[in-house]
Amino acid sequence: MSPSWRKTRKPKPKPAAPDLGEGLGPRDLSDTSARGPQPPAQIRVGPYIYRVEVSSEWYNTNDGRTDSEICKLWVNANLAPCMQRETLWHEVMHAAWNYAQLGTDDRGEEDVIKFLSPVLVQILLDNPALVIYLTAK
Predict the structure, then answer these.
(1) CA 122, 65, 60 angle in degrees (round to 5)?
(2) Does any domain span residue 121?
(3) Residue 115 falls within a domain, yes or no?
(4) Domain count of the chain?
(5) pTM
């Protein structure tokens, strides 16, 4: 038992995340409200602006879809919020792959993105200082 004169330590408040404006940042990734963070309406990949649609009317077995011809990304609204974020990143990587003209071998592209996407999202989540550094103007 500790002596009554001993003070108990109060937990230190967490510092507020810096306001990074709209888009992906520590504030958005850690939002725990009922609806959770909402994806941006559009994402720039190279010179192209992709529209983002989260839809519960899903018509196939994929969690997301990228159409670089019309610059649109889809994410299945029926997924858990953490899966929606990873799926959106996965689709952004497809858009980047298409912009970089890395080839049209769909299976190879899907395998590379499938393996890299989750670890890259985890890097962003675990390293908010890196996100701040990379997004500084």
Answers:
(1) 115
(2) yes
(3) yes
(4) 1
(5) 0.68
114 CA to centre of own chain: 14
Residue-range definition of the domain harbouring residue 49? 40-135
Note whether residue 30 is domain-resident.
Answer: no
Asked if residue 16 belongs to a domain, the reply is no
Q: Which residue has the higher pLDDT, 136 or 3?
A: 136
pLDDT tens readout for residues 86-112: 999 999 999 999 998 887 666 788 889
Buried-state track 41-65, b at ≥16 Cβ within 10 A, e below 16: eebebeeeebebebeeebeeeebbb
What is the CATH classification number for the domain harbouring 86?
Answer: 1.10.10
pLDDT level of residue 27 (50, 70, 90 thresholds): very low
